[in-house]
Specification:
- The complex is a heterodimer of chains A (about 300) and B (about 70).
- Chain A has about 300 residues and is an all-alpha fold.
- Chain A is built from 20 helices and no strands.
- In chain A, α3 packs antiparallel against α4, α4 runs parallel beside α6 and α11 crosses α14.
- Chain B is an all-alpha fold.
- Chain B is built from 3 helices and no strands.
- Classes of the chains: A mainly alpha (about 300), B mainly alpha (about 70).
- At the A-B interface, α2, α3 and α4 of A face α2 and α3 of B.
Chain lengths: ~300, ~70
C-alpha cells in the first residue's frame, strides 16, 4: 500500500519533469520508488546539462537588468518551467530579489518546476514569510508531491512559517512523499507538540492511516511514541486506528509503532484490538500474533495476548 | 533487444539507468528514452522562443549588450 502510493508520487514527479501525463508512464508502477527517483534525478541532470551554457549566459546577462525587469521577463517570456531552470544559475541574493517581485501564484508555479537541489542557495535565502505564502498556495492546489520536494531544503524558520499555514491533513500528505528522509525527524520536531497530536486526529478524520502509520514508522522512537501515545489517548482516534488496521491490513506497521508507545497506551490499544479479534479467521489471528511477536509487543498488549492464544 | 533499448535510454540520460528498470519491456524502455529526448528538444525550443521574447522586455539601451552575452 505504502509503496504503491510512493511510486505514484514518483511517477507524477517524473512525468511533470518530462512534460508527460502520469498515465503515459503508468508502466513504471512495476519499478520501485527509489529507482524512479534515481531515474528522475538522472533526467533532471541531463536536462540541465543539455542547456547549461545557455542557462549560464542568461544568468550572466541578467546581471545587467534590475529585478523588476527580470521578474517581468520571468513571468511573461520564460514562464515557470524555464524560470525554474535559470534560477539555480542566478546569484542567490539577486534571485531572491526577483522572487520578491513576482506574484505568489507564479512563485507557486515556479516552485513546482524548480529542482530544489540546484536552487538550494536561493531557497534558503528566501524570507520565511515568502516561503509560507507559496506553501499556502501549493496547499490550496493540493500539490503535496511538489511540497514534499522542498522540506529538506528549507531553513528551520521557513519550516515553522510553513507549519503555520498548512493544516494537519496536508502535513500528513506531504510527509508521506517527503524527499529528504534524513531530515524527517528534525522537520517534525519543529512542529509544536499540540500540532503533532493533531496529525493523528487528522489521520482519523480524513482516513489517512496508511500515510500516518508510515510517517510514525519513519520517525525516531521518541517522536513515534509521542504521536502513538496521542492516538491512544483519544478514544475516537484509537478506535479509528484499530479499525483501519483491520480493514486496510495495516497490522505490520501498527504493531511496530505499538513498540514505541508507553505502557498505558499499549494497554489501551490491546483492549481495542481484543474487540476486533472475534472478526478474524484463525489464520488471520495467527498472522497477527506472529506480527506482534516479530514487533516484540506480543507480551506487552495486555489481554490481547491471551485472546490471540485462545 | 532489451539491451539495445537500455543502451538507447543510457545514451539519452548520459548515465547508466537504475538496474531495476530491467523489469521493463523493450517498448517501455524505448518510450522512456523517447520521453527524455523529447523533453530535451522541447526545452531547447522553448529556450529559443523565451530568449527572443525576453529581449523585447529588456530596456532598449541595454538590448545590444544583453544580446552580445547571449551570443
Amino acid at each position: 500500500m505504502s509503496d504503491a502510493l510512493r511510486v505514484r508520487a514518483e511517477v507524477i514527479k517524473l512525468a511533470r519533469l518530462l512534460g508527460r501525463a502520469p498515465d503515459d508512464l503508468a508502466f513504471l508502477h512495476r519499478v520501485g520508488p527509489v529507482a524512479i527517483r534515481h531515474l528522475r534525478e538522472q533526467a533532471t541532470d541531463v536536462l540541465f546539462e543539455a542547456e547549461s551554457r545557455r542557462l549560464q549566459r542568461l544568468a550572466t546577462a541578467s546581471r545587467l537588468l534590475p529585478p523588476t525587469v527580470l521578474a517581468t521577463i520571468a513571468e511573461r517570456a520564460f514562464g515557470p518551467l524555464l524560470a525554474g531552470r535559470v534560477t539555480g544559475y542566478l546569484e542567490p541574493d539577486r534571485a531572491g530579489k526577483v522572487a520578491g517581485k513576482l506574484p505568489v501564484a507564479f512563485r507557486a508555479d515556479l516552485a513546482v518546476e524548480l529542482d530544489p537541489r540546484r536552487a538550494r542557495e536561493v531557497i534558503t535565502r528566501l524570507p520565511a514569510q515568502s516561503v509560507a505564502e507559496v506553501a499556502h498556495e501549493l496547499r490550496q492546489r493540493e500539490e503535496y508531491v511538489a511540497m514534499g520536494r522542498f522540506a529538506g531544503h528549507l531553513t528551520d524558520e521557513a519550516i515553522v512559517a510553513v507549519f503555520a499555514v498548512v493544516d494537519d491533513e496536508a502535513l500528513l500528505r506531504v510527509a508521506f512523499v517527503l524527499e529528504d528522509e534524513e531530515r524527517l525527524d528534525h522537520v517534525f520536531g519543529l512542529l509544536p507538540a499540540q500540532r503533532r497530536a493533531g496529525l493523528v486526529r487528522a489521520a482519523a478524520d480524513a482516513d489517512l492511516w496508511p500515510e500516518a502509520l508510515d510517517l510514525l514508522s519513519r520517525l525516531s522512537e521518541r517522536l513515534c511514541g509521542e504521536l502513538a501515545d496521542a492516538a491512544a489517548a483519544q478514544e475516537v482516534v484509537l478506535n479509528s486506528l484499530v479499525r483501519a488496521a483491520k480493514d486496510r491490513d495495516l497490522w505490520t506497521t501498527l504493531l511496530q509503532v505499538a513498540r514505541a508507545m508507553g505502557d498505558e497506551s499499549r494497554r489501551r490499544l490491546g483492549e481495542r484490538l481484543v474487540g476486533l479479534v472475534s472478526g478474524l479467521t484463525p489464520t488471520q489471528r495467527e498472522r497477527v500474533a506472529q506480527l506482534a511477536r516479530d514487533a516484540g509487543v506480543f507480551d506487552r498488549l495486555g489481554t490481547f495476548r491471551s485472546v490471540l492464544e485462545s | 533487444m532489451q539491451h539495445d533499448a537500455l543502451q538507447t535510454l543510457q545514451d539519452e540520460l548520459g548515465a547508466t539507468p537504475p538496474d531495476e528498470l530491467a523489469v521493463l519491456s523493450d517498448g517501455q524502455l524505448r518510450a522512456l528514452a523517447a520521453a527524455v529526448r523529447q523533453a530535451k528538444e522541447q526545452q531547447s525550443a522553448a529556450l529559443d522562443d523565451a530568449t527572443e521574447s525576453a529581449l523585447t522586455h529588456v530596456p532598449r539601451p541595454l538590448r545590444a549588450a544583453v544580446r552580445r552575452i547571449l551570443g
